[in-house]
Write a structure and sequence with these properties.
CATH topology of the largest domain in chain A: Glutamine Phosphoribosylpyrophosphate, subunit 1, domain 1
Strand content of chain A: 25-35%
Helix content of chain A: 25-40%
Oligomer: heterodimer
CATH class of chain B: Mainly Beta
Structural class of chain A: alpha+beta
Number of domains of chain B: 1
Largest interface: A-B, 15 and 17 residues
CATH architecture of chain B: 3 Solenoid
CATH class of the largest domain in chain A: Alpha Beta
Radius of gyration of chain B: 18 Å
Chain lengths: ~300, ~220
């Protein structure tokens, strides 16, 4: 069992409240996932040619300034960064391949949690309350977010095994359920050049979507293909630069509730997590149909 | 009538009070989708839940009347023995699962597996039901005013199914059956008790063809 949540604001005036709306959703979902939590927040787009890179190092005293200096020297461009607990958000003006190569060479033990022009993924072990408070989610702003609270069933309780999983630039995945063909699929994807860092089944689903997108499929097509190729139980929420998508497997054992008002679309594993949202009493509430892709986008 | 506000009273306290009572009416305020509301009632109590309820609402109900003035999550009236559970909104999956008796009325839709393994309950859904509804239904009646999803009545035993709308597909061993006078009479009575003005003649009846009851020797070589 895990808890997942998604929140998409239609009204730009509410963007300052995104974190304040998301935090209690994650905290309420503690009952479904008490061992780790994470989220992806989408905020202001970086200028063309600059990426937001969310980095993680387990040492709270890690020398992020030193890394920033090194990156600046290597890229020849100014590098901005801000530290938040075990994570740091870097703004780097360079090509993605160059950023990845330099980071791999300079700090092999730093993990890239996300890379894109809008996305910032942060995740950690601990109760959702701890994680939310550690990262200061209540004060965060943005246009939309997806989040996850984990009760591990398939693999170890680690930061790397927490959700969301990055699936490409500005893309990420959270999952409630379990996949039964992840071992075989991981091997297939590894042969296709997709890297995996954990034994986690959701990482395989994320790798699968990355692979399909690299093949040129749209997100809609990649999700449709996943219904054929992924065997198991899942409710997915997928974060994109412009919005989020929701998909349940055809058996639909894993729950999901959607709520829509004039101001937002919200999704959660249980209504309890939506109950505190403003105007929820007048929201249109429904359960997403099995094997149907729901997608909200600003574009 | 006694009011209990779940913003200030824990669910366990509500349920303990209901278990310790033999009569009375309760109004439960601010349920906010909380789980296990009014479970295990075993007396003719009346409970009104003023909003949306979470998982297993009114589970194991005996004799009680539970009114939910909103939606319910998974497993409403699960294993109900008797009494009435009335959902004014929609119900999530496995509504009335394994229930032995009583009446479950859902004014909106019920999602997947409505009436799974039902053992005698009467379930009346005014909207539609999702896939695999009445799966392994052993006894009782499921009435659907709207449509039914895929694999209705899969592996059905003796539960009776009535659907007014479209059935996406029938599950293994579930077949359409003739609507005889006795079925029209029992369905009319059940519709009346459920506050429905639908005409029993507009429904079609489905049941088990009883081919899965026994091992088929013809297929032995396939195993």
């Amino acid at each position: 069992m895990c808890g997942i949540a998604g929140l998409f604001l239609k009204n730009p005036d509410s963007e300052k409240d995104l974190g304040a709306m998301l935090a209690p959703m994650l905290e309420t979902l503690c009952g479904r996932g008490p061992d780790s939590a994470g989220f992806a927040i989408y905020d202001a787009t970086t200028p063309e040619g600059t990426f937001k890179v969310s980095l993680y190092h387990p040492d709270i005293a890690f020398d992020w300034q030193g890394l920033a200096n090194e990156l600046q020297a290597r890229t020849g461009q100014p590098v901005k960064h801000s530290v938040n607990s075990t994570h740091a958000l870097f703004h780097i003006a360079a090509h993605e391949a160059e950023i990845r190569a330099v980071l791999a060479e300079v700090v092999a033990d730093v993990t890239i949690m996300s890379l894109g022009r809008r996305i910032q993924i942060m995740k950690e072990t601990g109760t959702p309350h701890d994680v939310v408070s550690r990262f200061g989610v209540h004060g965060m702003r943005g246009s939309h977010a997806i989040g996850h609270t984990r009760m591990a069933t398939e693999s170890a309780v680690t930061t790397a095994g927490s959700h969301p999983f990055s699936t490409g630039r500005d893309l990420c995945l959270v999952h409630n359920g379990s996949l039964s063909n992840h071992s075989r699929l991981r091997k297939t994807l590894q042969r296709e050049g997709i890297d995996f860092r954990t034994d986690n089944d959701t990482e395989v689903a994320a790798g699968y979507l990355s692979w399909r997108l690299q093949q040129g499929l749209t997100l809609q097509e990649a999700l449709e293909a996943s219904l054929q190729d992924l065997d198991g139980f899942f409710t997915f929420a997928v974060g994109t630069a412009e919005g989020f998508a929701v998909l349940r497997d055809p058996i639909a054992c894993k729950p999901a509730v959607l709520a829509e008002t004039a101001d937002y679309v919200a999704m959660a594993s249980e209504y309890r997590a939506l109950a505190g949202l403003p105007g929820i009493e007048h929201a249109r509430l429904w359960e997403p149909e099995p094997a149907v892709i729901y997608n909200w986008s600003r574009s | 009538m006694r009011e209990i506000d779940l913003e200030s009273t824990p669910v366990r306290e509500l349920n303990r009070e209901l278990h310790d009572s033999i009569a009375g009416t309760w109004r439960v305020l601010h349920p906010h989708g909380a789980h296990a509301l009014a479970v295990g009632i075993h007396a003719p109590l009346r409970i009104e839940i003023a909003g949306h309820a979470g998982y297993y609402c009114a589970g194991m109900n005996q004799e009680g009347t539970v009114i939910i003035e909103g939606n319910v999550a998974t497993g409403v009236a699960e294993n109900m023995m008797s009494g009435l559970v009335h959902v004014h909104g929609h119900a999530s999956q496995s509504a009335g699962a394994t229930a032995h008796g009583g009446l479950l009325i859902i004014e909106g839709d019920a999602s997947a597996r409505c009436g799974i393994s039902m053992k005698g309950v009467e379930i009346v859904v005014k909207g539609s039901v999702g896939h695999m509804s009445a799966f392994m239904g052993q006894a009782g009646t499921l009435v659907v005013h709207g449509d039914a999803g895929d694999a209705l009545g899969d592996s059905l035993y003796e539960a009776k199914l009535f659907v007014r709308g479209r059935v996406a597909s029938l599950g293994a061993d579930c077949v359409e059956k003739e609507m005889r006078e006795e079925h029209l009479a029992s369905l009319t009575a059940l519709l009346e008790r459920s506050g429905s003005d639908a005409d029993a003649k507009d429904f079609r009846r489905y049941g088990s063809s009883r081919k899965l009851y026994n091992f088929q020797g013809d297929h032995a070589s396939h195993y």
